[in-house]
Design brief:
With 162 residues, the chain is α/β, with parallel strands linked by helices. The protein is 36% helix and 21% strand. It has a 5-stranded mixed sheet, sandwiched between helices. It is globular and about 40 Å long.
């Protein structure tokens, strides 16, 4: 009998800074669609890297969703293996500067086999990062596409019924 993988989907970013809230937008939509799935947890951790580490503990797979800095391709979607983005926190770092990238590194070191073995990071390039509650059109379109893509992938890999 196959056991289902436990997946944590974590949205990161500041929902009060326009497109930086795309992680929250995606994870909240997934939470609504997946609320009855026992093997999938959806969390909006905002800008709290420590919370990312705590919420991922005990899961087999981790999916992180965040905005990335504008470079002229608003709405571009990047899928990056977590090990490529994990980074050691600065020794003098306080908890306010501990980001999800630091959580990927520290979680592996601290929790070892109790931290997800499979980590994918989805970054959506922002158009605007000023104060505001709404996503720009290109970022919202990509976010809606990513929601459907993740639901399809989870259905295929883990047998969810979204």
């Amino acid at each position: 009998m196959d056991t289902l993988m436990k997946t944590a989907i974590i949205g990161c970013g500041n929902a009060n800074r326009s497109d930086d809230g795309v992680g929250s937008y995606v994870v909240n939509a997934l939470h609504h669609a997946l609320k009855d799935e026992a093997n999938v947890e959806c969390h909006d951790t905002g800008t709290n890297g420590m919370e990312v580490m705590f919420k991922a503990r005990g899961c087999d797979r981790l999916i992180v969703i965040d905005a990335c800095t504008p470079t002229g391709r608003p709405g571009a979607l990047y899928r990056v293996p977590g090990e490529e983005l994990a980074c050691l926190p600065d020794p003098g770092l306080n908890l306010h500067g501990f980001r999800w990238q630091n959580a990927l590194y520290a979680g592996q070191k601290i929790y070892r086999e109790h931290f997800p073995r499979f980590v994918d990071v989805y970054l959506i390039e922002a158009l605007q990062l000023q104060l505001g509650l709404s996503l720009s059109d290109p970022v919202r379109q990509t976010a809606d596409h990513l929601i459907q893509q993740l639901l399809t992938e989870l259905a295929a890999k883990e047998g969810i019924h979204a």
